[in-house]
Each structure stands twice: as structure tokens, then as C-alpha cells.
Amino acid sequence: MLIMPDQIRAARALLRMDQEELARRAGVSVVTVRRLEAPGGLGSVSLGTVREVQRALETAGAEFIERGVRRRQRTPEEIEARVQAILEIAKRSAELLRDAPPFTEDDLYDEDRLQA
Predict the structure, then answer these.
(1) pLDDT higher than 70, residue 27
(2) H-helix or E-strand containing 55?
(3) Distance from C-alpha of 94 to C-alpha of 100, rounded to nearest angstrom
(4) Rounded to whole angstroms, how far apart are CA atoms 38 and 44?
(5) Which carries the bigger pLDDT value, residue 91 or residue 103?
(6) Are residues 12 and 65 in the same domain?
(7) Of 56, 76, 75, 65, which Cα lies nearest the Cα of 15?
(8) How many domains does the chain have?
(9) Does residue 113 carry a pLDDT above 80?
(10) Are residues 13 and 67 located together in one domain of the fold?
(11) pLDDT, average across residues 69-80
């Protein structure tokens, strides 16, 4: 299925991705992304470029449907991997906090009692 300019814009909005990030992920220039998102822009780039942009958006979690886009549902394995990553971050944060000096209200202010 060939995606349309409004689907590209909608997918970016859904994923909270700016044009620069999409260009980086797709390996194209920002000018190319702008051209693709313009009305009639599909005719100004190669089909391979359109496919790379589509692949980048799909990898980021977009699912293109007829005349629209939605967030792709995560598999149970993807959900579990994300939970494990979050738990690892929490564990590292707790270790850093344990080794840090105690934090007091005095740390919030400078010597003139103004907020630091």
C-alpha cells in the first residue's frame, strides 16, 4: 500500500516525531520529508524513498490502514521487554540514590537563601 502525505503527517503526530527525527530514522533529508508531506509530494520522490519513510514510521510504532494510521499494538514480548527495561532503570536509580549524600532543604537555596 502506498502511503499518502496526510498519513505521513498523521503518523508523525501520533508518534510525537518531528520531521528531523523522521528524516534521521529514514536516512533521508528533512527537505525530502517536507516534500513528501506536501500535497502532491509523492510524485517528487522515488518509490524507494517513500518505502524507507514508511518503514521508519512502522518501526517506530505506526500501522498504516486504508486512508489512515493507528498505533501498532505491542506484542506481549515487547511489553515484557519494556517492563524489564523500566525495572532495570529503577534499580540503577535506586543504587545511585543509595550512594548519594543525603539531600536536605538547604540544598535548594544558595548562601543568600535564594533558590539555587
Answers:
(1) yes
(2) helix 47-59
(3) 10
(4) 10
(5) 91
(6) yes
(7) 56
(8) 2
(9) no
(10) yes
(11) 88
**pLDDT tens, position by position, 39-57:** 887 788 899 999 999 999 9
pLDDT higher than threshold 70 for residue 116: no
* Selection from 56, 67, 71 nearest residue 1 by Cα: 67
User: Are 66 and 10 members of one domain?
Assistant: yes
Domain limits at 84? 76-108
Ordered DSSP codes for 74-116: PPHHHHHHHHHHHHHHHHHHHHHHHHSPPP-GGGGB-TTS-B-
Q: How far is CA 7 from the centre of its chain?
A: 16
Whether residue 22 is found in the same domain as residue 63: yes
Who's near 102: CB < 8 A, 6+ residues apart?
none
